[in-house]
Amino acid sequence: MEIKLTLNGERIVQDIEPDLLLIDFVRKNGCYSVKRGCDTSNCGLCTVLLNDKPVLSCSVLAMRANGAKVVTLEGMQEEAKPLATFIASQGAEQCGFCNPGFMMNTLALLKENPHPSDDEIKEFLAGNLCRCSGYEGQLRGIKNYLNYLEEKGNE
Amino acid sequence: MLSIRNYVRPQTIEEAYEYAKKPLSVVLGGMLWLKMQNRNVNFAIDLSDLHLDQIEEIDDEIHIGAMVTLRELETNEQLNYFTQGAIKESVRHIVGVQFRNLATMGGSIYGRFGFSDVLTLFMALDCEVELYPTGRVSIKEFANMKFTKDILTKVIIKKVPTNVVYLSQRNISTDFPVLTCAVSNINQHYTCIIGARPLHAVAINGDSYFETGITEKNIQNFTKCVLSELKLGSNSRASKEYRQKIAKVLIKRAFLQLKEDVYGN
Amino acid sequence: MAYKHIEKPVMKKDAMNLLLGKPVYVDDITSQDCLVVKVLRSPHAHALIEEIDVSKAQKIPGIEAVYTYKDVPQKRFTMAGQTSPEPSPYDRLILDQRVRFVGDAVAIVAGINEKVVDRALKIIKVKYQVLTPVLDFTKAKDNNILVHPEENWKALCPVGADNHRNLVATDSSSQGDLEKVFASCDQVIERTYHTRANQQAMMETFRTYCEIDPYGRLHVISSTQIVFHCRRILANALDIPQSKIRVEKPRIGGGFGAKQTVVAEVYPAFVTWMTKKPSKMIYSRKESQIASTPRHEMQVTVKLGAMNDGTIRAMDVYTLSNSGAFGEHGPTTVGLSGHKSIPLYTNNLEAFKFSYDVVYTNCQAAGAYRGYGATQGLFAVESIVSEMAGILGIDPVVIREKNMVRQGQTMGAYYNEVAKACALDKCMDHAKKLFDWENKSKVRVLENGKIRSSGVAMAMQGSGISGVDVGSATLKLEDDGYYTLHIGAADMGTGCDTILAQMAAECLDCDVDQIVVFGADTDISPYDSGSYASSTTYVTGKAVEQACEKLKNNLCDLALQTFHCEKEDVEFTSQGVKNLKTNELLTLKELALKAMCGNNIETQVTVTHSSPFSPPPYMVGMVEIELDKETGQVDILDYVAVVDCGTVINTNLARVQTEGGLVQGIGMALYEDVQYTKRGAIPENSFMQYKIPTRLDMGKIRVEFESSYEPTGPFGAKSIGEIVINTPSPAIANAIYRATGKYLKDLPMTPEKILMAIDE
Q: Where are any strands of DSSP class E within chain B?
């Protein structure tokens, strides 16, 4: 059936199967940053923005996004770079497989709450699993990024 | 693997119901549970166009549409004021924000899942569910109803003086609960809901135990009654014996907290 | 000595690309338009396939091939990625008529897409003769039911394996007169501990793509830690020459040892070799949970003898290890449960014994997981030492200070290796201060009834497998005056590409950016055993250091042709080679160009290194918990770790390795359960059921280092990858004991087990 949506700012009209999941749709359209890490909606690796809200693309029918705006990390490269630099400065990217989902959800958090406390960061990102980093380095990176934004704002 | 032959987005509830009546049809909630099933679906019915994604105050009621997400419940100020934060407490442990941005009010209630935090809490709020075409049914009745072709459209909370406390025990932060417990005082009527037994939540009326108010003694007597009536079981997360111990602790803690709360409405 | 690039927080070379989600993993860089390969899995823990009918499945349009045990080579092999001859028994076929665990492979299906393959899987008809399984590993040895009765089973190494006794390995070693020393001890206690078959749960599941290359060879692109072993294993499995196979690894989405075993590779390799068409297998999370290569479940019994003053004089460790349905890593993991636990107490130890049995069962086969047996052994030994301290009324830190191994001591239980670099005592001092052990070790009851308490544990590991592991580095001066470094080790997110480049940059006195790293591809990379056993920094790192020296020497020789002077008059510098007498300089670029014109001196060198030693890193972990006595719930508040990994090459990456390992260890200690139903199925078959820690579950973690200098390591480095998972289980058990008076000996320490122990 026909789907029309905006993927990373680009209008797409395609003929798809009714049971195609959004994760498979965006990967078919070249958005390889979106990863599948589990079969049970638990890992957060497949996080994309659907009408500006972070969702698990493995659990959404592509057809449900008909008429909607979908953004993956491919569509947020410039916005993601400064944050990425701070995570990389901690070595907290490690294997990298969870990174895109983590980046997307962190960017979503900062849009919703530009000055989160440590606990608010942890709560918002609780659905983003990482097996390598032990999470501390990610938290340090986010906090350093927030400090940097604050200092930049004060200049 | 979930296999879907037709995806439909009805424009009216009547149209949705016509589809729902057909064999192998399913109404989509957040799809989180459905997606994991090995199931052939002929019509997947998406209610997204039926404006069921609203939380509205209508007269002396709060209407929560079936497509309202758990994240919206969590962040809705009015609902959390009304429930002294119990709604947030009941959903904040559920996997993660991205998950709760998908999971819906309707899906969470309709499934009557044993593990459901949401069902436990809303049973304590003594609300009603609106089914199409059947009409309004009390949620406690609904919890025990057979699965029908009805479509759940709304959950309706009465705006009466309500105190409610929600507690759960989990082995790890974002896991399914080992046991859920919600207690409420609605117009001086006391109710205790125990869920994740691991069977679905049940309600126990506490009125006769708390006539003299919430005291340690009354809680003890009530807990004794609950434990004697309540069927608890074992699963991979916990044994029946552990659930019995936890039920006792959660009931006590919930009532002690309820005693401290004042009406938020 | 101050370094330029060592002991620095150098950013990983691939960090930004990973964080920005660039396509770098198997499924991103290989064709999306290839055969999809899936495996039909056994619903029975033990059965023989009586009949299997695939005719209907084969007829489905889009199905390319369906294979059963009748179609595969009949030579047995092991999937364990180990140096040949492998200590793990040759007990596998790609598909076997006997299925040995719930999830064992029954048939391979390849088709044009997932939908048709799923349909085909559903209509394969199998008639099983269901057999009684051996599920209890304590009853497996000499059981009447044999997991591997077949005649063509074989063990290549003398590890005590005997398939007619369900034995994968057995051994015993000792020193001193154990019974006599026990008899003269003031206190002798014996306890038995149980650890589970934890999953590595790396975020990228097992996955492999295969195609036929222009020469008709099998080209395998796989998420693996062991490209060279993988090549040999596939050659064994397919019964074809190794020369027909090329194995390459792209970026890996985590390994932790899981990808030291060939798990997914054989299936698409077989499909592509048979059909000559490209194919891909992506393991589902469920498959990764039920049909992969988790930690060996172990039952460890320790007998400990001590004096009233806390002197530990004798230790007897017996380990029973559950290898599951196949023997991968069975004979080797078990050794670490004693050899990496007992030596921690070398100081006053007069006698020890370490013995073990490794058994086959009809459980999921085990494999290599970070810690590799040491984790299990240390849970037992560290727990019993703490319990002994409790019995003697001695602080658990004090009993360790009294007995811990010191630099210069010969560790009898560690193959008589000398602790040449050991700062364990400094780690303990440092941890005590950082953690504030003096105050936090006191048990405190809060107003709400919850209890705060603390626990401590020590750990050691190795650095590579002594006398076995081989690392190589090929270093080349390139056209523009930069270097390429080829390695066969596998960066699985740990950052070894960057760490090895730091070492090269230090030796060559250039920027890290001037070193381009490539690894790993069996056709291109120099031989390396692979990234496991905490070997890469220590073993391959030394090869890199030596390769740099060799290349510098060659570049000086090359310069002599221009300078026409004596060798001692030239010197390698960051800019190039300098004539010390004339101050003339041949820049790197000039040298590179010179090397490409009328030149007979190699500007590409390969050095191979192996070490007769495996120097242990050491560490101390301290944890503060808050325990709810009414529910049994434990919250981690604070975890302090101080590590001696020799010289820290990359301060960021060593820290993050430690933090990551600690959180995995916390998962193992408290949450990650693996149970078996009566039928032998694992309920924890997804991330919904197998709960790894989220960022809400680990409290605050603080990591610092106490360096020693290991003379045989590159720049004094030892290892860090594995040791970091070892302290949480015993430290948390210790804290729970101090809060409740009860010792939990069965992992994970769930709220239920804790509450039941309190209420006992």
A: 2-8, 25-28, 39-46, 55-58, 61-65, 128-132, 135-138, 151-158, 162-170, 177-186, 189-195, 202-205
Residue of C450, C752, C756 best to disrupt the B interface, most CBs of B under 10 A: C752
Please provide the CATH number assigned to the domain covering C15-21+466-609: 3.30.365.10
C693 contact B CB<8A = yes
The domain segmentation of chain B, as residue ranges, is 2-45, 53-158, 162-260
ipTM value of the model? Answer: 0.99
What number of residues does chain C have? 760
Cβ <8 Å between A134 and C284: no
State yes or no: pLDDT of B1 exceeds 90. no
Domain boundaries, chain C: 15-21+466-609, 31-131+203-254+258-290, 297-463+615-759
pTM exceeds 0.90, yes or no: yes
**In CATH, what number does C31-131+203-254+258-290 get?**
3.90.1170.50
Give me the amino acid identity at A70: V
**Considering Cα of C222, then C225, then C228, then C231, what sign does the dihedral take?**
negative
Helix (H) or strand (E) holding C216: none
Q: What does the domain layout of chain A look like in residue ranges?
A: 2-74, 76-154
Which A residues 14-73 touch C at CB under 8 Å? 27-28, 32-35, 37-43, 45, 72-73
Picking from B98, B102, B176 by the largest number of A CB atoms within 10 A of its own CB, the best residue to mutate is: B98
Instruction: Write the pLDDT tens digit of every residue in C733-759.
Output: 999 999 999 999 999 999 999 999 999
Chain B residues lying within 8 Å of C669, measured CB to CB: none
CB contact under 8 A, A131 and C285: no
A2-74 CATH pick, 3.30.230.80, 3.10.20.30, 1.10.760.10, 3.40.1280.10: 3.10.20.30
Half-sphere exposure (Cβ direction) of B177: Cα atoms closer than 13 Å: 34
Q: Least CB-CB distance to B97: which of A18, A64, A124?
A: A124
Class of domain C297-463+615-759: alpha beta
Q: Does domain B53-158 have CATH number 3.30.465.10?
A: yes
Cβ separation of A1 and B2 shorter than 8 Å? Answer: no
C32-85 tens-digit pLDDT: 999 999 999 999 999 999 999 999 999 999 999 999 999 999 999 999 999 999
Q: How far is B2 from chain A (nearest CA, A)?
A: 8
Residues 142 through 201 of chain B touching chain C, CB cutoff 8 Å: 169, 171-176, 178
Instruction: Check residue C318 and give its pLDDT.
Output: 98
Q: CB C240: neighbour CB atoms within 10 A?
A: 16
Nearest-angstrom CA–CA distance, A43 and A99: 12
Tokens (6 digits) for C554: 């060659």
Would you say residue B265 has pLDDT above 80? no
Topology of the domain covering B162-260? Enolase-like; domain 1 (3.30.390)
Query: Which of B219, B242, B252 to probe by mutation at the C interface, max C CB count within 10 Å?
Result: B242
With contacts defined as CB-CB under 8 Å, which chain A residues touch C662?
A: 134
User: Nearest residue of A to residue C699 by CA position?
Assistant: A136
Asked whether the domain spanning C31-131+203-254+258-290 has the same topology as the one spanning C15-21+466-609, the reply is: no
- Neighbours of C (≥3 Cβ pairs closer than 8 A)? A, B
Does the distance separating the beta carbons of B178 and C694 come in below 8 Å?
Answer: no
A76-154: CATH topology = DNA polymerase; domain 1 (1.10.150)
* Strand-strand pairing, C187-195 and C297-306: antiparallel
Residue C4: other Cβ atoms inside 10 A: 14
CA distances (Å), origin C462, targets B47, C261, C472, C716 = 59, 20, 19, 14
Please, which pLDDT band fits residue B260 given cuts at 50, 70 and 90? confident
Residue B177 C-alpha, separation from nearest chain C C-alpha, in angstroms:
12
